[in-house]
Amino acid sequence: MSLPLSDGFLLVDKPAGLSSHDVVAVVRRARGRVRAGHTGTLDPFATGLLVVALGSATRLIRFLPSEPKVYRALVAFGTATDSDDSTGTVTGQGPLPDESAVKEAIARLTGTIDQVPPAYSARHVDGRRAYAIARAGGEPDLAPTTVTVHSWDIVSFTGSALDAVVTCSGGTYVRALARDLGRMCGTSAHLAGLRRTSSGPFDVSDAVPPDEASGAPLLSPAEALIGMPRQVVSRDDAARIHHGRPVEAREAGTQVALLTESGDLVAVAEREGDWWQPRVVLDGG
Fold it and tell me: pLDDT digits over 55-74, tens only?
């Protein structure tokens, strides 16, 4: 049995001004109020790719390939803000850097680095969201986290602004990269624009705006698990899987997508010795 059209993944091109939660709500209403969730938050001022899971596919979010993230970022020099982006209040100003200083700073912000998240972020500090502390006039004490910045590809540099394509790991705050780039150049900077162009194998060129979500085709769960080993199971094994029982492992690896002969996803399973133990079983397999 094939999964119904309500189960799968939709690639959405998020417009500026909507939160990721807002976009999920729009998609959910458009698709008949099925269960929905997204695979990675975008700030309201940012645009670009948001991968939305619908129906039983929401249970597969943790298995979806999602790295690296690729962003088109516009960094404005000379001004710092409390949010590290263009929506915040100006907190400082500085001179415009020269190109050599910017390139030197970019080199220091490439690779595995420790990054302090923005004050206006959803990170928890003593049980509270950092943004709640900041909005109340406090200064959240945020511990640095380790992230990986694979590359900066400079599109243009005008002195007052840097336009670049940033490829990085999940959990990287591009706002914080802009802030730190300014500081390392001996000045101030903030993120003036941000667009996510890809997340893992998924690209914004294949995405639809939220107002076209109702008629847009979904990626099936099997299609979305790009790169995961696959094993076709018999009808009897599919019945075993639906009862949570393991099946013989015939593929290498620690994780597998178990499919019917017609290509529908039955389950995602993990290796236990010579067996695949189901971890997420879909009703429609």
Answer: 999 999 999 999 999 999 99
